[in-house]
Amino acid sequence: MPGAGRRPFSGKGSGCLDTASGSDGQSENLIGTTRTPGEAAAVTLAPADRQEPRDGSGPDAAGPGEDFVRRLKEYEGRQAGPPTTGRDPVNAPMIRHWCEAMGDAHPAYQGPDAIAPPTMLQAWTMGGLAGHPERGAVARDELFALLDGAGCTSVVATDCEQEYPRALRPGDEITFETVIESVSARKRTRLGAGHFVTTRTEIRVDGEPAGTHRFRVLKYAPDLKASAPEAPAPTPTPDPAPAAPRRPRPVINRDNAGFWAGVAAHRLLIQRCTACGTLRLPWLPGCDGCGSPEWDTVEASGEGVVHSYVVMHHPPFPAFDPPYAVALVELAEGVRMAGNVTGARYDEVRVGTAVRLEFLRVDEELELPFFRALPDRGATRGATRGATGGATGLPMAAGTELPPLAIPVTRTLIVAGALASRDYQDVHHDPELARRRGSPDVFMNILTTNGLVGRYITDRFGDRAVLRSVAIRLGAPNHPGDTLVLSGTVVSLADGTAEVRITGTNALGLHVTGTVTVALPDTETSG
């Protein structure tokens, strides 16, 4: 039996209230959508921490009898569909698009020896707009049709877990198989009565395990009587939320337009005098060495060190959260440039700190060059470097609280993340259709949240950190104009591996909770 010998779903991270991978590798909207003739009607969900048990242990509900449950149980252990090959090999363009969408500048995902970000795992199984038509009818479709016929026309994901035993590299051809691990008896939940369905997808390369992707969903009959009002009531129009402050816009003119065009293309261009070869930054209309107006450009390598810095405490400026460090960075080419420093706390920046250029989106319209601190390059960092150090320079031990990361949730981020993960569900890019499905606006998909969690961990633990597993639970959705603040606490640290408890909040409350396991090669650890 395909499901034999496998450990049960651990459920230690996640109840994903967003999307789940279907048997064809496509993403399905799981914010309680109801499959009815015509347009789907949205069902309001209870908060994740107030729902009935997710493991199917709640009381049985009245419904179809034992014969129906027996028919459902016959699907346990069956393949949800035939073994399938990914639509495309693992490839550099998709990796680049993913990293740009997530703002992930981890060096392991760049260059000729790049690997794919582990949190991209599900993206390689997605069928995109075309799906996987070669698979035909599959057992999962039969099972869901059976549940639909019993009135369980709505679906919501409750648990998700990923493991990464092997890195994926450009050129790898993935194959995947999905098994229906379990189908529960009929249970009553706050959403309605239904059945929990747990699936497990195994991803392989040349027969070698490359990843495991688990999902548990609830197929249920929505309790419309309990949720419907007695009579329609007018919906009050809320006061518009104040617009988040934006960073000052750069003044672009004919003398520096080429520089900002380079930034838009993620290239830092330095002017070079064609008469004497002198490099200059910032851009000027003429050479300050020989006076020649003729010039061309060279692209900076992005490597540099902090030449000097200041820490801004007062006065406060809109869109800036003091205290923060502003550094004058001497680039490898010999010119200097001012910019914000990321990857280190403001009180950890020192003269001589090694940095690397990265481009970060600060709002829907503006992307700027930043400099990420590189503690493993022999830089002069604060004396707080401990057992593992990491990108924060904090002494890493059980109980260590990682510095938070605030990520503006822009419409661009939501759409870019959905496209980078091949998730074409309309609720992630079409505001009008999202509203018809009961959401006030488009919202972030779970694959993007997963990617941002992965970015947060590797940012905090440094360039050598390797993700081994991510398990997350989604709660309040991320809508445009909000801010996602990720934070983490080291739960355990031993034998070169850390387990980190993750939370992410927004204006509505908890967006994500979960657990991440990260390997820390070439480091000494202590519990």
Question: Notable features of this structure?
Answer:
alpha+beta; disordered N terminus; 23 strands; ChsH2_Znr; 14% helix; 527 residues; HotDog_dom_sf
- Give the strand content: 25-35%
- What is the C-alpha radius of gyration, as a whole number of Å? 25 Å
Structural class: alpha+beta
Low-confidence region ranges: 1-8, 11-62, 226-233, 376-390
Helix count equals 8
The average pLDDT value, as a whole number, equals 79
Could you tell me the number of beta strands?
Answer: 23
Separation, N- and C-terminal Cα atoms: 40 Å
Helix proportion range: 10-25%
- Describe the sheet with the most strands: 13 strands, antiparallel
Shape: elongated
Q: What oligomeric arrangement do these chains adopt?
A: single chain
Domain ChsH2 C-terminal OB-fold: 298-359
Domain ChsH2 rubredoxin-like zinc ribbon: 260-295
Domain MaoC-like: 405-505
Biased composition (Pro residues): 231-245
